[in-house]
Amino acid sequence: MANALTHTLCQGIVSRLEQEIILADRSGRILYANERAREGIDGEIEERRLRDIFSDTDPAPLEKLDYAMSSTQWMPANLTFAHGSLAGVEVKFRARGYREDGQVRLLLIGDRNRDEGFRQLRDLVRRLNDELAEKRDLAHRLQRALDSEANLHRELIHRVKNNLALLTALVSLRRNATPDEAVEQALKDLEMRIHAIRAVHDILDQAGEISKVQAGELIRALCSQLDNSVMPENVTVENELLDVTLDVDKATPLSLLINELITNAAKHAFPEGKPGTIVVSLQKNGEDKLEVGIVDNGRGAQGDFTQVGTGSRIIEALADQIGGELKRVSDDKGTHWSFIFPHDKPEEDAGLERGGALQE
Description:
Blueprint: H1 2-15, E1 21-25, E2 30-33, H2 35-38, H3 50-53, H4 60-69, E3 75-80, E4 90-100, E5 103-110, H5 116-177, H6 181-207, E6 212-214, H7 215-227, E7 235-242, E8 245-247, H8 248-268, E9 276-284, E10 289-296, H9 312-322, E11 325-331, E12 334-342, E13 352-354
Helix pairs in contact: 5-6, 6-7, 6-8, 7-8, 8-9
């Protein structure tokens, strides 16, 4: 009595499971199907075979059942119902064989969660791809904004350069028109200072940069400009420059400072046509500093350097703006200016170039 009750109870539980459960014999004849499996079986199960209820458009899964029947290991099998409310629905099964009363049986159990891990992984990949697409879109929009800002900066640099050229032309016209030699000299000095500022913007414009310049290239251009404009014929300019990158906020006052010191040497170091040389150098000074040197072999100067030349106050102001230290050593063999200033991100030497005399 107890065994019959247990059997009835188990059969009732199996019948109501959400998983499809099918029992078949060696010939494929269905011996039992629970309620879930009967949804895919058209009519009664008696004398129905697996090939009757599952689609045979792809015989490979059905042939796999023959192999599963001879195995005691669970094997995956994907089968598509051909009839009933589940017609056309592919159901994932686990299949294995077993013996009952000396007879070989095939047990099929629906395994809808067999690919749950894969589904979760697929959903995760989809979410990650969506997030990646959003981040790519954000990156594209940020890049467009940066490109737009860079274009505006370049346009600004170009306009500033053109305005400086116009200002230089106006100063030059006024200088050529004045009969006063002192005024003419003052305007000429002003013109050279404008040229020094313009040299920075020329390099920015040519390089397509907006905030950094190559210091060596800048100083070479400045030396060439001064050699062609204010330098006496008896004086040559040489350079020994380390190519490092400078921010514009340092490059502009530095070019003005070099302009003042070279111009001062050209005016005062070589009287009465005495031949001479001015050497301009840029090199490292320790790990986080750079040093600009301007050396002439002229007559030298006496007294405090702040009293030499009309641009002494400008020299002091420019040195303070960069946060550097300006020194001068002068004797009868010439004058050596040394300007040491901080360089936040020192770069390795790109090459130390020793230039010969600059020619017009």
